[in-house]
Design a protein that fits this description.
The protein is of the alpha/beta class. It is 43% helix and 16% strand. The strands form 3 sheets. Strands 5, 6, 7, 8, 9, 10 and 12 form a 7-stranded mixed beta sheet that branches. Strands 2-1-3 form a 3-stranded parallel beta sheet. Helix 3 links the parallel strand 1 and strand 2. Helix 9 packs across helix 10, helix 9 crosses helix 17 and helix 10 runs parallel beside helix 17. The N terminus is likely disordered.
Length: 364
Amino acid sequence: MKRSIIIVLSVAFLSIYLSGCGLARTFQCRGRERLEVFNWGEYMDRELIRSFEEEYNVCVNITTFSSNEIMLTRLQTQSFDLIFPSDYALEQLASEGGVQAINWDLIDFNPNTGFADDLMYMLEYLKEDGFNLLRYGAPYFWGSVGIIYNKETVNRNELYEHGWNIFHQRVDGRRILFYDSSRDAFMVALKALGYSSNSTNDREIEAAAEWLREMRRIHGRDVSFLTDEVLEDMPALRHDLALAYSGDAVFTMTQNDSLGFFKPDATNIWVDAMAIPTDARNVELAHKFISFLLQHDNALQNTSAIGFSAAVASVYDYVLAPGGIFHAFADAYRVRTSDKDEMFRYLGSAHGNRLANEWLRITI
């Protein structure tokens, strides 16, 4: 789950403000246009939402989800004006006719020059491989998958030497947190074995499953399969190594300077995008919100609050420059890419179910 890491919103605020519930919220929104937004939990600065509402005299109702799969299921029965799917989920929606093309003429932003260079490199590669993400989505946040490590117990040279195979190295007393996600887990194993993270080859999938089973055998009870717990466990140094998103690494590093982040030279580069469903009721206002979020000052405010890497080039470069708020955490915030990195592709529901079932058998 990708989530806010600097501002922790209260349960009361989420249930009243973000969901649009409560008498006060109902009264406030009476007679005003509504924008129905479906986003990851705690993934946008609330002050930006209020600023947009005031500028356009509208109400933004935010419903949250915790996984792409939950989002895709919910979209079958509920209509939203703006959604925030990850790359492969957006590709699935596009292939099924679930999203409409973005009208960039309605957005005050140049998609050809305004996004971070390395992000554009990955999107161009994706386009050449058959999916033009910018046709259906506007990049929001992006990042990589890597390893958070305790610098007091793990030597960085070990990470350079072993890469993903660091998870196969048994060191007495070393504790491992492995992200409990079938797609991410199989990505690690496939990349460690030199295969594509989008492989559908039976032999390669079985080899990856065996790699993961072996990791479990090597570490036994010293490996934990968790998700959002990384945000509390790693600053508390409860584990020595953790598979994690780069944005989550930024947060943990701000909480404890004993932590570092390492990106192996072959990993997943992910992009969460803003997209408009085919059945959206307020398409014009959705485009205005996209344009609003892509403006430099607003994108800067958002990344400062959330901590994930900004897609907007001017913001991305600004916060990483000397004196920038994320300069000291560049190992995690800067999304370094290599020719071995890949973005996830939509490979069909049968493939996703197969990985999920294999992963369940490994972790139980």
